[in-house]
Amino acid sequence: MKFTDRLFEAVHPIWEQTHMHPFVTGIGDGTLPKESFICYMKQDYVFLIDYAKLFAMGTVKAKSLETMTAFAGILHETLHHEMELHRQYAERFQITREELENTKATPTNLAYTRYMLSAAHSGSLEELISALLPCMWSYWEIGKHLKHRYPNSEIHPFYGEWIRMYSSEEFGSLTKWLLDLLDDLTEGKSERELRILEDHFLTTSRFEYMFWDMVYAGEEWKV
Ligand SMILES: Cc1ncc(C[n+]2csc(CCO)c2C)c(N)n1
């Protein structure tokens, strides 16, 4: 069994709940209040600034020029393509780039990015990939799920663009590349090592769920 098949089985209950989360279903059926979505976009923008650094660290830890080039490509894609989606949504609400960039990350957002950056700093390339993988894989799954469950969601005047981006073949092939790389890197690894990777993967999968929940609840610093 491929290591990523094992991860897919283990994460199934978390993803089932994620797909049913009211924030996610609200994007799908178009009922999510726009203010909630904008709050998510702002938190996600500062999340992506930190997250992009993981790809930069991937270029440093890569063991071949091919892998190094691929990580540099995803880094570019995130900064120029994915974050452009956020900048465009913000523009529709007259939110300036400066305001977007200066969004104060919530406790959950910070905990999530710090967890990944810490695993990436102190761990192997496999650890780095296992920690960052749910971010890409879960969005690809959500994009496909929403497109299938809500057939008109792709053409929704506000949320359609979001769904088209995350269900796109382009995002799918980036995720598949990462899955193949992790399967390659984990071949022949001991059960003890695999368990550490699975633990990173499940922890950040739970953080993905918490990110949706945090923007739905409107989490803020209390003092
Ligand atoms: C909390 C959160 N989790 C996942 C993504 C999705 N995402 C982030 S980077 C990347 C790959 C290439 O840009 C993808 C799919 C997000 N935006 N925010």
From TrEMBL:
<dbReference type="GO" id="GO:0005829">
    <property type="term" value="C:cytosol"/>
</dbReference>
<dbReference type="GO" id="GO:0009229">
    <property type="term" value="P:thiamine diphosphate biosynthetic process"/>
</dbReference>
<dbReference type="InterPro" id="IPR026285">
    <property type="entry name" value="TenA_E"/>
</dbReference>
<dbReference type="InterPro" id="IPR027574">
    <property type="entry name" value="Thiaminase_II"/>
</dbReference>
<dbReference type="InterPro" id="IPR050967">
    <property type="entry name" value="Thiamine_Salvage_TenA"/>
</dbReference>
<comment type="pathway">
    <text>Cofactor biosynthesis; thiamine diphosphate biosynthesis.</text>
</comment>
<comment type="function">
    <text>Catalyzes an amino-pyrimidine hydrolysis reaction at the C5' of the pyrimidine moiety of thiamine compounds, a reaction that is part of a thiamine salvage pathway. Thus, catalyzes the conversion of 4-amino-5-aminomethyl-2-methylpyrimidine to 4-amino-5-hydroxymethyl-2-methylpyrimidine (HMP).</text>
</comment>
<keyword id="KW-0378">Hydrolase</keyword>
<comment type="similarity">
    <text>Belongs to the TenA family.</text>
</comment>
<dbReference type="Pfam" id="PF03070">
    <property type="entry name" value="TENA_THI-4"/>
</dbReference>
<dbReference type="InterPro" id="IPR004305">
    <property type="entry name" value="Thiaminase-2/PQQC"/>
</dbReference>
<dbReference type="GO" id="GO:0009228">
    <property type="term" value="P:thiamine biosynthetic process"/>
</dbReference>
<comment type="subunit">
    <text>Homotetramer.</text>
</comment>
<feature type="active site" description="Proton donor">
    <location>
        <position position="208"/>
    </location>
</feature>
<dbReference type="GO" id="GO:0050334">
    <property type="term" value="F:thiaminase activity"/>
</dbReference>
<dbReference type="InterPro" id="IPR016084">
    <property type="entry name" value="Haem_Oase-like_multi-hlx"/>
</dbReference>
<feature type="domain" description="Thiaminase-2/PQQC">
    <location>
        <begin position="10"/>
        <end position="216"/>
    </location>
</feature>
<protein>
    <recommendedName>
        <fullName>Aminopyrimidine aminohydrolase</fullName>
        <ecNumber>3.5.99.2</ecNumber>
    </recommendedName>
</protein>
<keyword id="KW-0784">Thiamine biosynthesis</keyword>
